[in-house]
C-alpha cells in the first residue's frame, strides 16, 4: 500500500486500521497483509475500464421543513451502554 | 434445524384485529436480522449488535403488520450482509435444508432456509450484490431483487446503500410476488423510493407462466465461467422456456468482466462509511477499555466486528484514502456506468436476460472461508445487476447432474420490469 500497489506490508495494514479505528491483533495484521495484496492486485484490473460518460437522471426530493414527531429521549437512549442525565456518555475526547 | 435458521425465534403478530382480510392474513413471514423490528432485537449477525433492540419498525415491517402477516422470527445472516455463505455470522452457520452439510448461500441464508425448511411460508432478505438471489438458488426457492427504489430501505441497517434493496422469498413465484405487492411503493422516509409503474393490478397477477413470444438474451460472459453441471441445468431450463414459445439469442456484455472488482470497491467504500456509526456509545457492547475516544472506539470495534467486516471496512477505507480515490473508487464508478449501458443495450433487443444465478452449486460447510477473493468471485453473475440498479429473480432450475445440488436460473429485466420477470419465471414451475 505504497505507490507501488504490489507491496502491501504490515505497517500499511496497521495504518489503514488506525484510520478506520479498528484495533487489530498481530495475527490479524499478518493474515490481512497477504489477503489485501491478492485483493488489491485483482482491483488493479479496473485500470482497463474506459472513462465512461455518466448521465445520471436524478431529481432532488424535498419535504416541507415542518416540525414533526421523533423518538423520545428514553427510546433514543435505550441501547446505550452508558448514559448520564439523559445524555449518551462517551469516553474522553482527548 | 430451526435453531440455526433464526437468531431470534420470537413471534410478532400482525394487525389481525383491524385487518383480518389483509393480503397476508394467516401467512407466516421470516425476516432477515438486519431489518429493524420494534421491540425485537436486530443483530445483523454481529456481536456488535447482540443486544440491540430497535425503538422503531422498518417500513417493510409496518407494511407486513398492516397486511395481517405473522412474523415468526429474525433470520441468520452473514455479518452485516457481508458474505456468500451465512458462515460469517457471529451466531454460527445455518445448514441448507435442500442440501444438508452445505451452506445455504448468503448473505440472507437464514431467510431462504426458513422457506425451504417450511419454518415460514415467506421471508424477507436484502440484496446488495446477490444476497437474496444466491441463497434462493442454493436452497431451491424463489427470490426477487427489486429495482433500486421500488422498496423502502427505511429501517434496513445500511451496508452498501447505493446498491441494496429489500426483497421477498417464497416457495413459488406467485408467493414471492404477493409479498412484493405488500412491501413495494414509495415511502416518504426513503427519498430514493419511486412509484411502481405496474401494468396490472398486482405483481402476483403476473405469475401466469405465459412466455409465448418472449425474447431472452443470454449473456455469454455469465455462462462461460460456470461449472459444467450448472451450465447443463441452465440450458435445460432455457429449452423448457423455448418449448413454451420463448426464443433466445446470445448477447455480449463486455463490461461485466470488471463488475466484481467494481462492486467490491464500491460496496467496501460505502461500508467503511456506513459502519463508522458503530462506536460503542449509542449502541454496542459495553467495554472496560481505557483511554481516549479513539482508543476506546478502536477497542470496541476490534471486539464487535468479525474478520470479514474488518476486512471490508479496511479495504474501503483504503480505496477512499488520499491518493487512491481516483485509482479505485472513481474507476469503479466508471465501470458501474459501463455496466448500466451494456444492460440497457442488451435489454433494448431482449425482453429479459437469463443466466445461471450462481456459477457454482452450494459449497460444503467450512469449505471456502479462508480465501476471501475466491469467495468474491462467486458473485460474478449477481453483482452486475446491483451495479445497474435493475430487477432480477432467481427461480429453481433443477439439480446439477454432476452433484445433484440445486441450481438457480436468474432473469434480469429493465427498471421496474418486475412483472415481466414474474411472468417468465413462473413458466418454469
TrEMBL record, chain A:
GO molecular function: asparaginyl-tRNA synthase (glutamine-hydrolyzing) activity; ATP binding; glutaminyl-tRNA synthase (glutamine-hydrolyzing) activity; transferase activity
EC numbers: 6.3.5.-
Membrane-crossing segments per the record: none
Superkingdom as given in the UniProt entry: Archaea
Biased composition (Basic and acidic residues): 62-75
Keywords: ATP-binding, Ligase, Nucleotide-binding, Protein biosynthesis, Transferase
Catalytically driven reaction(s): L-aspartyl-tRNA(Asn) + L-glutamine + ATP + H2O = L-asparaginyl-tRNA(Asn) + L-glutamate + ADP + phosphate + 2 H(+); L-glutamyl-tRNA(Gln) + L-glutamine + ATP + H2O = L-glutaminyl-tRNA(Gln) + L-glutamate + ADP + phosphate + H(+)
BP terms from Gene Ontology: glutaminyl-tRNAGln biosynthesis via transamidation; regulation of translational fidelity; translation
Segments for region (Disordered): 62-94
Protein function: Allows the formation of correctly charged Asn-tRNA(Asn) or Gln-tRNA(Gln) through the transamidation of misacylated Asp-tRNA(Asn) or Glu-tRNA(Gln) in organisms which lack either or both of asparaginyl-tRNA or glutaminyl-tRNA synthetases. The reaction takes place in the presence of glutamine and ATP through an activated phospho-Asp-tRNA(Asn) or phospho-Glu-tRNA(Gln).
Family as reported in the entry's similarity comment: Belongs to the GatC family.
Complex and partners: Heterotrimer of A, B and C subunits.
Protein name, as recorded: Aspartyl/glutamyl-tRNA(Asn/Gln) amidotransferase subunit C
Originating organism: Natrialba asiatica (strain ATCC 700177 / DSM 12278 / JCM 9576 / FERM P-10747 / NBRC 102637 / 172P1)
TrEMBL record, chain B:
E.C. number(s) listed in UniProt: 6.3.5.7
Self-association and partners: Heterotrimer of A, B and C subunits.
Protein name listed in UniProt: Glutamyl-tRNA(Gln) amidotransferase subunit A
Record's function text: Allows the formation of correctly charged Gln-tRNA(Gln) through the transamidation of misacylated Glu-tRNA(Gln) in organisms which lack glutaminyl-tRNA synthetase. The reaction takes place in the presence of glutamine and ATP through an activated gamma-phospho-Glu-tRNA(Gln).
Molecular function GO terms recorded: ATP binding; glutaminyl-tRNA synthase (glutamine-hydrolyzing) activity; transferase activity
Region (Disordered): 83-112
This protein's encoding gene: gatA
Pfam families: Amidase
Catalytic reaction(s) noted: L-glutamyl-tRNA(Gln) + L-glutamine + ATP + H2O = L-glutaminyl-tRNA(Gln) + L-glutamate + ADP + phosphate + H(+)
Domain Amidase positions: 10-421
Amino acid at each position: 500500500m505504497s505507490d507501488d500497489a504490489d507491496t502491501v506490508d504490515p505497517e500499511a495494514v496497521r495504518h489503514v486500521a488506525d484510520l478506520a479505528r479498528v484495533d487489530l491483533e498481530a495475527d490479524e495484521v499478518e493474515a490481512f497483509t497477504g489477503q489485501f495484496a491478492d485483493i488489491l492486485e485483482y482491483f488493479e484490473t479496473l485500470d482497463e475500464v474506459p472513462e465512461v460518460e455518466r448521465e445520471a437522471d436524478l431529481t432532488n426530493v424535498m419535504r416541507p421543513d415542518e416540525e414533526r414527531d421523533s423518538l423520545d429521549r428514553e427510546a433514543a437512549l435505550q441501547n446505550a451502554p452508558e448514559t448520564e442525565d439523559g445524555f449518551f456518555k462517551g469516553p474522553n475526547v482527548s | 434445524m430451526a435453531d440455526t435458521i433464526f437468531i431470534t425465534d420470537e413471534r410478532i403478530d400482525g394487525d389481525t384485529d383491524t385487518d383480518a382480510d389483509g393480503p397476508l392474513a394467516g401467512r407466516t413471514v421470516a425476516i432477515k436480522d438486519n431489518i429493524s423490528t420494534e421491540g425485537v432485537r436486530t443483530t445483523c449477525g454481529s456481536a456488535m449488535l447482540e443486544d440491540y433492540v430497535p425503538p422503531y419498525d422498518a417500513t417493510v415491517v409496518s407494511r407486513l403488520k398492516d397486511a395481517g402477516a405473522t412474523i415468526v422470527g429474525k433470520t441468520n445472516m452473514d455479518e452485516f450482509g457481508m458474505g456468500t455463505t451465512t458462515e460469517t455470522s457471529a451466531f454460527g452457520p445455518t445448514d441448507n435444508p435442500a442440501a444438508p452439510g452445505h451452506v445455504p448461500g448468503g448473505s440472507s441464508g437464514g431467510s431462504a432456509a426458513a422457506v425451504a425448511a417450511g419454518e415460514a411460508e415467506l421471508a424477507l432478505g436484502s440484496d446488495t450484490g446477490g444476497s437474496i438471489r444466491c441463497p434462493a438458488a442454493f436452497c431451491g426457492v424463489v427470490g426477487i431483487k427489486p429495482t433500486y427504489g421500488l422498496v423502502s430501505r427505511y429501517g434496513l441497517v445500511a451496508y452498501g446503500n447505493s446498491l441494496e434493496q429489500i426483497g421477498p422469498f417464497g416457495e413459488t413465484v406467485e408467493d414471492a410476488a404477493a409479498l412484493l405487492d405488500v412491501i413495494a411503493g414509495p415511502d416518504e422516509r426513503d427519498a430514493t423510493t419511486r412509484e411502481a409503474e405496474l401494468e396490472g393490478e398486482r405483481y402476483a397477477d403476473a405469475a401466469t407462466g405465459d412466455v409465448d413470444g418472449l425474447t431472452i438474451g443470454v449473456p455469454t460472459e455469465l455462462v462461460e465461467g460456470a461449472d459444467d453441471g450448472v451450465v447443463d441445468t441452465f440450458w435445460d431450463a432455457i429449452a423448457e422456456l423455448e418449448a413454451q414459445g420463448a426464443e433466445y439469442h446470445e448477447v455480449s456484455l463486455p463490461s461485466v468482466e470488471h463488475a466484481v472488482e467494481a462492486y467490491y470497491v464500491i460496496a467496501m467504500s460505502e461500508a467503511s462509511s456506513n459502519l463508522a456509526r458503530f462506536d460503542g456509545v449509542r449502541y454496542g457492547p459495553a467495554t472496560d477499555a481505557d483511554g481516549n475516544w479513539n482508543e476506546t472506539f478502536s477497542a470496541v470495534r476490534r471486539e464487535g466486528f468479525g474478520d470479514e467486516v474488518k476486512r471490508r471496512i479496511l479495504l474501503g477505507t483504503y480505496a477512499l484514502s488520499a491518493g487512491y480515490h481516483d485509482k479505485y473508487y472513481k474507476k469503479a464508478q466508471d465501470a458501474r456506468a459501463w455496466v448500466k449501458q451494456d444492460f440497457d443495450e442488451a435489454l433494448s433487443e431482449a425482453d429479459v436476460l437469463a443466466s445461471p444465478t450462481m456459477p457454482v452449486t452450494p459449497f460444503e460447510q467450512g469449505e471456502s472461508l479462508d480465501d476471501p477473493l475466491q469467495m468474491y468471485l462467486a458473485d460474478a453473475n449477481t453483482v452486475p445487476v446491483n451495479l445497474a440498479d435493475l430487477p432480477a429473480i432467481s427461480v429453481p432450475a433443477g439439480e446439477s447432474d454432476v452433484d445433484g445440488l440445486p441450481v438457480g436460473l436468474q432473469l434480469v429485466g429493465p427498471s421496474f420490469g418486475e412483472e415481466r420477470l414474474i411472468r417468465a419465471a413462473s413458466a418454469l414451475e
